[in-house]
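ingest -> validate -> predict -> emit
validate: passed (alphabet ok, no gaps, 343 aa)
predict: started
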Amino acid sequence: MPMKRSQILVIAVCALMLGACGSKAKPTADPSAPPTTAALGPTAPLTGLPEHDKDKRGRTLLTIKIDNHPLARPQFGIDKADVIVEEKVEGGLSRFMALFQSQDSSKVGPIRSLRSTDANWLKAEGGMVAYSGGIDPVKELLPQNGLIDIGADNHGMKYYKRRGDRPFEHSMYTNTDTLRELTPKNAKAPPPLFDYVRPDEKFGGAGIAPVTSASFRMAGLPTAVSFDWTWDAGKGLFMRGTDGKGAEIESAGQIGMKNVIVQFTPYRQTPWRDRANTPVDEATVVGEGEAWVFSGGQIVRGHWARASLGEVTKFTDSTGAPIKLQPGQTWLSLVPPGEFSEV
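emit:
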């Protein structure tokens, strides 16, 4: 039965003792490397995993807007993204920003249009943004926030292709290697998004508790997307479900994540409307609020805060200590506060 987020049940299981991953390689003297510990060595900025290839470590961020309409599923290639950011769009549906930095995919999609949330959230990370469509005021936010517009509207079918076996609105795909041909010479690597545990540390925080599953909705509307995460101890991952089914990735099976963050984020109505004349909402990404952080079969209920668009969001526990993730891929959902959850 649906209930308020504040009433969500967290089901306990035996605590799982997971060893943190990491390399024993010594750190290099490379001044361009992101902050690391001596035990771990150079790491990829958005996963915290070891990355000794200086060129790959220094690549700029490539963000691709991904469709999550029911007719767009299963998606392709997003299992290779370092981070996926999920935002609410019209009708209570959601759309993804797939952040590629340390990995690539020969096919990614379906690709969909921009929302104003995208440029605001991405300003601190910079890089290139791939998309298909969007109203002019929203597209103009990309250069205004220091982002590089490599959308299909400007670069056509050399960099974007359509599939004949998908409905037209959900049929555009791309290739990360091809898109990287558009990287400007002065492009920089993104700053780290999260804090990570050291090899001798475990995921933790004040009030940490075991959890087997949790479910959320993007809005109280009948059409709103629901999603859930279920802990798979064998894989050491939280497995994603969408609208009551496993969230499958074409040719890759159900997608799972090392870390999941649910950031309860207010939305406000913009002056713009979509093609169906529906008001377009925008996430209020500067501010603070509640955040639930899942990793290693456990949950820490904490707090998020972002002082400006130019700074990354900080996640802390109830004592104010940083919540450190396990190195690996992370899924971040910007869920409106007070919406419904089910377990």
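The first strand starts at residue 3 and ends at 4.
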